[in-house]
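Quick question, first post here. What does this chain look like in 3D?
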Amino acid sequence: MSKPLTFLFCLVMLFTACSNNPKNDASADNNATSSEKPSIQEGGKSLEVQNIADGWTTKTINVENGGQAPNIEQLVEAFSRAWPTSAINGKKTVDAPNGWLSSEVEGQTLTACQWKRPNGHQLFAVNLAQPVEPTINVVMFYDYDPAKGTLTPDKSSPTDFKPSFEGNIVEYKLPRTGKDITINEFVPGWEKYIRHTYAFDGTKHKFARTTIDDYAKMTKLYDEFDDMYKSEDHTLVKYALVDIDQDGNPELWLRSQKEEDGAFFAINQGKIWLLETENYHSTVYLRKGIIQQSGGCGTGCQFSRFTTVKGSKPGDVWNVLTEYGFEDGDEGTSSWEKNGNEIPEAEGDKFMQSLDNDFEFTPQWRPLGNL
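> Answer (accepted):
Ran it through. Tokens below.
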């Protein structure tokens, strides 16, 4: 990871936690404390974050003197005895009334929080992050059983999260106030986030919605695009990422619920371009570095538009209009344009011969929310 990207990622690691302490539900930001207590692993050996990420589900943890409602420090101490980390050696900030704790050393951060469950148990969450290479970020959930005084690994929806695109940086944010967990995906080439919210239903966290930075700007570009074939309800409510030019930086594909309408966007270093739209009247094909839209334009008339993508930016736009007669063997006549200017048919034919075949791509559609 480059130094600017590492620095940016460190900046966004603003770890905040929960406000559902079993002993005190009131907001208590002013009661948070900072300390540099000796680590319970002092003199011991810390485990690699990856080892903990791979193994946390295999071990039930005893909480010494846990009782009916252990506080956040007791739970973190029990976790850290079972899974020693460097992060716990750092300066700690504890907000006991809100059930929140954070501890950080250079290159590693631990945050934790707790929620009450209706059966008298607690849900305990720990986030370990290592923002320097190898970048690792993991969230772990446990059920605290007051009768047994144990923390048992608890599978929760956020632990099943998979990034939308390989290479996206994932950041888990545990809420200091409120109860929702946010998973931020930073798309390096975009310098933008895809944010996934998981709401607490009283027992566990379930997926609630996804939002994309600058979605409003994207849909404004789409709404302003003159397309006579847009459906009446063309709101873009789902997304997929596809690397059309295969440069490692994905393009964004937004679609309506019925998948009759859609739009492709290139995003590079914070700048957004509308590449192509789709509607019920035409068909979209993806080729390496090209989005092709083809359809009918009247009796005996076919059109195709080819929008090229290079370096995650829009390139040339080629248009061809082919008109057919009604005699047998009529191959039709084609009129070509490149970037709005007429070009000879031979130049258009040469472009057609240079095209790669369609590439296979199965969109992994994910829903958006609160649009």
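DSSP finds five helices and 23 strands in the chain.
Residues 1-17, 25-30, 35-43 have pLDDT under 50 and may be disordered.
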